[in-house]
Design brief:
The complex is a heterodimer of chains A (about 120) and B (about 110). Chain A contains no helices and eleven strands. In chain A, the strands form two sheets. In chain A, strands 2, 4, 5, 6, 9, 10 and 11 form a seven-stranded mixed β-sheet that branches. Chain A has a four-stranded antiparallel β-sheet with strand order 1-3-8-7, with no helix packed on it. The chains are: A mainly beta (about 120), B mainly beta (about 110).
Chain lengths: ~120, ~110
């Protein structure tokens, strides 16, 4: 069974960089043709797709975040990461990592538990 | 971006009764390969979203058969044949045809 677990600071200061890791177990992020995504949810609100990274390292980002966003693979630790620069209060959200299907970005068959990140001034 | 619109926002339901949620997309979600790139998720209170239905009408593994998805083009429906207490939460539709992937605003299902 594939399991994903987000980790990282729960508090980030405004204008700094938000960085989160997603640890994957039960599957190898470097093989198998899967897409690994990040999705966020402002508390009490809807869901926003952030972007994905393919096992080859190819990425695609939501244009609304593209200028501030990087998603990276770390095959040595079987993790992938999210880095969002110049954060503001609008970036306060629960951040989820998720996996799509074989050769498909979606649907998201597997989700992490989510990590709440608060941006403080 | 493809805009996803769900209705209703809130849906009080009676256990044992049927329920349905509507989702409309601003563009057709029918791919040239014949598949409809529309998924349904349920987010139970305090939990991550979980996949219910993918490609319009396919139940995900472990999803009870009281859940069904239908629709074509731009209009989609999630039906629960007989609501159970464990079905409460927020239901989201999502389109996976064009990036950026986009979600509907959600429908909160609660027991009357």
């Amino acid at each position: 069974q594939v399991q994903l677990l987000e980790s990282g600071p729960g508090l980030v200061k405004s204008s700094q960089t938000l960085s989160l890791m997603c640890s994957v177990s039960g599957a190898s992020i470097s093989g198998g043709g899967y897409y690994w995504s990040w999705v966020r949810q402002v508390p009490g609100k809807g869901l926003e797709w952030i972007g994905f990274i393919y096992h080859t390292g190819t990425t695609q980002y939501n244009p609304s975040l593209k200028s501030r966003l990087s998603i990276l693979l770390d095959t040595s630790t079987n993790q992938f990461s999210l880095h969002l620069t110049s954060v503001t209060a609008a970036d306060t959200a629960v951040y989820y990592c998720a996996r799509g299907g074989l050769q498909q970005v979606s649907p998201f068959f597997f989700w992490g538990r989510g990590a709440l990140v608060t941006v403080s001034s | 971006d493809i805009v996803m619109t769900q209705s209703p926002l809130s849906l009080p339901v009676t256990p044992g009764e049927p329920a349905s949620i509507s989702c409309r997309s601003s563009q057709s979600l029918l791919h040239t390969n014949g598949y409809i790139y529309l998924d349904w998720y349920l987010q139970k209170p305090g939990q991550s979203p979980q996949l219910l239905i993918y490609l319009g009408s396919n139940r995900a593994s472990g999803v009870p058969d009281r859940f069904s998805g239908s629709g074509s083009g731009t209009d989609f429906t999630l039906r629960i044949s007989r609501v159970e207490a464990e079905d409460v939460g927020v239901y989201f539709c999502m389109q996976g045809l064009h990036a950026p992937l986009t979600f509907g605003g959600g429908t909160k299902v609660e027991i009357k």
